[in-house]
């Protein structure tokens, strides 16, 4: 049973790290919203200078359009990141209540979490690409150099899928 204690300890650590990631996504999203509000106040209401607003959210040598685009892409990424972290938090809570990862329902939930992460990562990437494309299309002289990438780690998704199968097998063995 020492191995089970080790697994539970690792799961508790991962649960804490996932909560930290969730909070970081919420804070990052709030900063992106704040940035969008500052840009709006500068752009449409002229309550603050454009240079000041741009300096708050991006390097000072960028344009207003690039700053808007950066904040929207950042908001998209943080929202989807928070959704994924929330799903992981639910898994860790479920696993903690079961006292072992070798429960069929937990293993199924872990499998669905991996699929969820795959789909949401892809959706976040597509939305980010669309945001950048719209800004590039509406600003003919603008070439936004965003280094967009998939919002998930394929290795993590594949490992999670494999681990969920191992946990499901462990549940079958426990049942027998």
Description:
With 176 residues, the protein is mostly helical. Helices cover 81% and strands 0% of the residues. It is built from five helices and no strands. The longest helix is centred in the first third of the chain and has 42 residues, at 2-43. The model has no long low-confidence stretch (mean pLDDT 86).
Biggest sheet character: none
Runs in which pLDDT lies below 50 for 5 or more consecutive residues are: none
Q: What's the N-to-C terminus distance?
A: 18 Å
Counting DSSP E segments of at least 2 residues, the number of strands comes to: 0
Globally, the shape reads elongated
DSSP helix fraction? over 70%
Mean pLDDT: 86
Query: How much of the residues is beta strand, in percent?
Result: under 5%
Helix count, DSSP H or I runs of 4 or more residues: 5
* N-to-C series of helices and strands: HHHHH
**Structural class, from helix and strand content?**
mainly alpha
Q: Could you tell me the radius of gyration in angstroms?
A: 21 Å
Offer a few descriptive terms.
176 residues; mainly alpha
Element layout with pairings:
Elements: H1 2-43, H2 50-57, H3 64-98, H4 104-138, H5 154-175
Helix pairs in contact: 1-2, 1-3, 3-4, 4-5
Question: Nutshell version of this structure?
Answer:
With 176 residues, the chain is mainly alpha-helical.
């Amino acid at each position: 049973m020492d191995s089970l204690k080790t697994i539970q300890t690792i799961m508790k650590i991962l649960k804490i790290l996932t909560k930290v990631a969730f909070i970081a996504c919420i804070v990052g999203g709030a900063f992106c919203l704040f940035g969008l509000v500052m840009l709006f106040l500068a752009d449409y209401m002229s309550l603050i200078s454009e240079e000041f607003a741009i300096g708050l959210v991006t390097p000072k040598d960028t344009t207003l359009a690039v700053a808007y685009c950066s904040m929207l892409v950042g908001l998209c990424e943080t929202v989807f990141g928070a959704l994924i972290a929330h799903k992981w938090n639910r898994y860790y809570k479920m696993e903690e209540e079961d006292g072992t990862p070798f429960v069929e329902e937990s293993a199924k939930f872990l499998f669905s979490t991996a699929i969820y992460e795959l789909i949401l990562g892809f959706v976040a990437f597509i939305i980010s690409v669309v945001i950048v494309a719209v800004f590039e299309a509406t600003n003919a002289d603008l070439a936004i150099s965003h280094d967009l990438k998939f919002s998930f780690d394929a290795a993590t998704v594949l490992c999670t899928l494999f681990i969920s199968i191992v946990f499901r097998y462990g549940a079958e063995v426990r049942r027998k």
